[in-house]
Please model this.
Amino acid sequence: MRTASQNYHQAFLQAQTELVDAIQERDRLNLEIVRLQRLARSLAATTAESEKHEQMLQALSAEISFIETIHAIVRSADKPLTPMDVRDRLASYGYDLSVYSNPMGFVHTSLSRLKGSGRIAEIRRGVYAPNHFWEALLKARP
Model:
């Protein structure tokens, strides 16, 4: 016979698993939103009704910040990433980093801020991965 404590513990583990799954799904969807926004903006700029299209995009826009995008990239990666890996993945999602005077500086600063807030870990100099807490949650899943 299971005790109430065991039932609560099992419920906690189930909730933890569902939360990790939901966060991973959110990261996947955030990256897909970023890709589609960039694609739609590029296509809108090439049409005769570009101003109208841009207004429609603004109405639909759920802008995901640069730092949130980098966080999702690091957390969803299957291996630790260097800043150059992050830059390449940003480009694959349609980010035009050439608009920045120092794009790699922007990537480095964002990674540094995420590391400083404990949201990602620098596992060795210049190589980033999800923080240890996130890794532990993934390993603890049944």
